[in-house]
Design brief:
The protein is α/β, with parallel strands linked by helices. The relative contact order is 0.08. The chain contains 37 helices and 20 strands. A 6-stranded parallel β-sheet has the order 10-7-11-12-14-13, with helices on both faces. The structure holds thiamine diphosphate (TPP) and magnesium ion. The site of thiamine diphosphate (TPP) has 19 residues, from helix 5.
């Protein structure tokens, strides 16, 4: 077999370099042997710490003497914990093996049966097959449930391993056979099981949505950090609870997977354990056919300061390794690339002997006493409970940094010809009769040849040893995992006082909605009930939003306090970091900030604490950039407020096309439990936030909120009467026409910053063209759309009942004249509700790329300023035959509109 240079092993690269400049000396085996023996004797007499110290000193000595040792963050391709340092396995290994086998069987049965009933319904066998031992050791010995007295461990399960987690819950008696039968068929009577971990679909079971790859590792890191934040701020007692994240080796290709690992080590998150299931395969084939994914990950994690524990070889290798006094076997292990390792998995013992051990006669000698069959059955570390237990034990005991366990496994383990280690295994969901019988026999499932091909779910009797053992283990560990429960108590106060001042306007003072929001936030932070629960989150944009005053008042969270005197210490608003700081200043990571938002917004369930996150960010870098995290937070029933700052395509002046957001309200449409608002005035924001806190934290609704706030200053009016319901439902009349008897009438709809343009147009229309226009504030097209759709749906399903009327239609029942809407977002927003309006709607919006320019120029460019609104109203009147063409021609001239300017969508 060809043995290309391994990518991450240092010595070979080193020798290759050296041969170019130095005469080659053959290494004297005897000399090497002597060095190894002396190291062994130090190890034996003085232990690993002294041995490590000597090696460190040797390395320093070598450097001083001009030996250029290449940098390597890798250790040899061997288990990090040698056999002699392995703790005793505390469980009943045989019984645990039987339980695991039953879970394997049921996991396989549920997927194969589902696909027999409904062709192509999907599901995965091979992921759990590779990870079963990794999970079972966790379930039997490590994952602690949430109890009254202890918060419990937090486990992120690999999404595609869900069948195994269901199968365990079945054996535990938490999921019944009917549900298993309806895996991936949730709509069947009596319910089924969702394909992957989805708290939205199974809110009593799953806690964390993990199946979109890369999200869970990042979420787990920020979850572990948020746990510390809660402790440092005194919101929960300090505990030794752990956050476990099980991820695939292929999954580590996602930039999010490794993107925040330095945060974890910087924050010394020894409450965090990653377990990477290194089956060396992803969906299509090998993860690194030409390299070594384990060594690559080791160097990345070690380089980032993590404690890395490799679990590569099972116990069967120990005696062979012991016989190998020259270190040849470990060297050989490091030589193969993953593609070769995969080949060994599917090959015979004779092939293993020839290709793996056959590279050196001394290696062959090591395994001479073993028959071929024994060579084929040399287990990998991730399938050996003793090795996995040792790794987990070391991981939970480790202090000072997070730990990653890199466990080598075989994808499709146990599937034999049906897919073990094969490239097609990821999608294997059918087994023929022989393959089923073989699987049954291999794992000792008590089913006959005939019965097993029917794939019955198998659960041993209640009083069986297996069930009693499994129950006892879970009891000892505090209950079942996963399990989701809302643990927080609802808030009680109404908070009217908090928001009252914002309902009264700014008395002519010009402020932006961002400033108004920050003032509100400042007040909320002082509130006796919710003050301490607020979690302000910023991705390095606090100054952009005028929030720097909060640095001083509530502090920026830092797990180590502030070890330096800040450069601006003499100023009022100095940069104050503190151990009990409240602001999460995440640095330039919207994804990380969103993960903090998720941790804080789900603490009501995870910790029983009603933390209320306010994550404020540059609105263009929200939905556009991290929509998948937002979707996951929706799935997870996260509560809180997302604030898209500096929002609006024409309101954020100067920044150009990458910054100016005309999209986010469209991108917010698909998220079902997200309320999205584009408020124009401070009182609208106050009403929305007060109501949002009530609905989420008093009434316990699974909602979250998105508000866009802008940086354009203008006077904030007082709330015009009691329009709270209108604000929340999506629209209300802001300013009626002064002359409602006029012959020419119009209705103008503005939102956010464009509301002021509509108000200016109202004036122009009235004073110059004799058109009396009413102006409406549309706070949420999404609310209007959902209401209209629901009304239509209900009417369709109840043709015999009195038809319901959409809210938009009700609002406009007596509203005369032509209709014009203007938004700083895409025209589709107003257009999507026009069908429920009494007449044709002219929609103005900002479709197209942005430009770097001032607000006035941008609003001219997109055609959304007061002049274009005026023109749109006049044109609608012309189409209706209410005015003559010369009026419109004249208006175009008077308004200074260039009729030949290009369409912003095409330029
Ligand atoms: C973001 C994302 N992209 C693609 C997929 C589709 N997908 C599902 S499993 C899989 C391969 C997983 O490989 P690995 O992470 O190694 O897990 P294994 O099943 O081998 O344990 C892919 C590409 C996904 N679930 N999420
Ligand atoms: Mg994999």
């Amino acid at each position: 077999m060809a043995s290309p240079q391994p990518h991450f092993e240092g010595p070979d690269a080193e020798t290759a370099n050296e041969t170019a400049v130095r005469p080659q000396h053959t290494i004297d085996d005897v000399e090497i042997q002597e060095w190894l023996e002396s190291l062994d004797s130090v190890l034996e007499s003085s232990g690993p710490e002294v041995a490590a110290e000597i090696l460190e000193r040797l390395r320093a000595h070598a450097t001083v003497n001009g030996i250029d040792l290449p940098f390597s963050a890798n250790t040899p391709y061997a288990n990090t914990i040698p056999a002699r340092l392995q703790p005793l396995f505390p469980g009943d290994q045989e019984l645990e093996r039987r339980i695991k086998s039953l879970i394997r069987w049921n996991a396989l049965a549920m997927v194969v049966r589902a696909n027999r009933v409904e062709h192509n319904i999907g599901g995965h066998i091979s992921t759990y097959a590779s990870a079963a031992t990794l999970y079972e050791v966790g379930f039997n010995h490590f994952f602690r449930g949430r109890t009254e007295g202890f918060e419990g461990d937090t486990v992120y399960f690999q999404g595609h391993a869900a069948p195994g987690i269901y199968a365990r819950a079945f054996i535990e008696g938490r999921i019944n056979a009917h549900q298993l039968e309806n895996f991936r068929r949730e709509l069947k009577p009596g319910g089924g099981l969702s394909s992957y971990p989805h708290p939205w679909l199974m809110p009593d079971f799953w806690e964390f949505p993990t199946v979109s790859m890369g999200l869970s590792p990042l979420m787990a890191i920020y979850q572990a950090r948020f746990n510390r934040y809660l402790e440092d701020r005194g919101l929960k007692p300090r505990t030794d609870a752990k956050v476990w994240a099980f991820i695939g080796d292929g999954e580590t290709d996602e930039p999010e997977s490794l993107g925040a690992i330095t945060l974890a080590s910087r924050e010394k998150l020894d409450n965090l354990i990653f377990v990477v299931n290194c089956n060396l395969q992803r969906l299509d084939g090998p993860v690194r056919g030409n390299g070594q994914i384990i060594q690559e990950l080791e160097s990345a994690f070690r380089g980032a300061g993590w404690n890395v524990i490799k679990v590569l070889w099972g116990s069967e290798w120990d005696p062979i390794l012991e016989r190998d006094t020259e270190g040849l076997l470990v060297k050989r292990m490091g030589e193969l690339v993953d593609g070769e390792y995969q080949k060994l998995v599917v090959s015979s013992g004779a092939y293993v002997r020839e290709q793996f051990f056959g590279s050196d006669p001394r290696l062959l000698q090591l395994v001479e006493p073993l028959p071929d069959e024994a060579l084929r059955r040399l287990r990998l570390g991730g399938h050996d409970p003793r090795k996995v237990y040792a790794a987990y034990k070391a991981a939970v005991d480790y202090q000072g940094s997070p730990t990653v366990v890199l466990a080598r496994t075989i994808k499709g383990y146990g599937l034999g010809e049906a897919g073990e280690g094969k490239n097609v295994t990821h999608q294997q969901k059918k087994l023929n009769e022989d393959e089923l019988r073989e699987f049954r026999s291999r794992f000792g499932i008590p089913l006959s040849d005939e019965d097993c091909i029917e794939l019955p779910f198998y659960r041993p009797p209640e009083e069986s040893e297996e069930i009693r053992y499994l129950r006892a283990r879970r009891e000892a560990l505090g209950g079942y995992v996963p399990q989701r429960k809302v643990r927080s108590k609802p808030l009680v106060a109404e908070h009217d006082e908090l928001y009252r001042e914002f309902l009264e306007g700014s008395e002519g003072r010009e402020v932006s909605t961002t400033m108004a929001f920050v003032m509100m936030l400042r007040k909320m932070l002082k509130d006796p009930e919710i003050g301490k629960l607020i979690v302000p989150i910023v991705p390095d944009e606090a100054r952009t939003f005028g929030m720097e005053s909060l640095f001083r008042t509530v502090g920026i969270y830092s797990s180590v306090g502030q070890r330096y005197e800040p450069v601006d210490v003499n100023t009022l608003l100095y940069y104050k970091e503190a151990k009990d700081g409240q602001i999460l200043e995440e640095g330039i990571t919207e994804a990380g900030s969103m993960a903090s938002f998720i941790a804080a917004g789900s603490a009501y369930a995870t910790h029983g604490i009603n933390t209320i996150p306010f994550f404020i960010y540059y609105s263009m870098f929200g939905f556009q950039r991290i929509a998948d995290f937002i979707w996951a937070s929706a799935d997870m029933r996260t509560r809180g407020f997302l604030l898209g700052g500096t929002a609006g395509r024409t309101t954020l002046a100067g920044e150009g096309l990458q910054h100016q957001d005309g999209n986010s309200h469209v991108l917010a449409l698909p998220v079902p439990n997200l309320k999205a608002y584009d408020p124009a005035f401070a009182y609208e924001i106050a009403v929305i936030i007060q109501d949002g806190i009530r609905r989420m934290y008093k009434d316990g609704e699974s909602l979250f909120y998105y508000l866009t706030v802008m940086n354009e200053p203008y006077a904030m009016p007082a709330m015009p009467g009691d329009v709270k319901d209108g604000i929340l439902c999506g629209m209300y009349p802001f300013r009626k026409a002064s002359n409602s008897r006029a012959k020419l009438r119009a209705q103008l709809f503005g939102s956010g910053a464009t509301l002021n343009e509509a108000l200016r147009a109202q004036e122009i229309l009235e004073t110059k063209y004799g058109v009396a226009a009413d102006v409406w504030s549309v706070t949420s097209y999404k609310e209007l759309y959902n209401d209209g759709m629901e009304t239509e749906r209900w009417n369709r399903l109840h043709p015999g009942d009195k038809p319901r009327v959409p809210y938009v239609t009700q609002c406009l029942a007596d509203a005369p004249g032509v209709l014009v809407a203007v938004t700083d977002y895409l025209k589709v927003l107003p257009s999507m509700v026009s069908k429920w309006m009494p007449r044709r709607l002219a929609a103005l919006g900002t479709d197209g790329f942005g430009r770097s320019d001032g607000r006035a120029a941008l609003r001219d460019f997109f055609g959304v300023d007061s002049r274009f609104i005026t023109l749109a109203a006049l044109h609608e009147l012309l189409v209706d035959g209410k005015i003559e063409r010369p009026v419109v021609d004249k208006a175009i001239k008077e308004l200074g509109i260039n009729t030949e300017k290009p369409n912003p969508i095409t330029c």
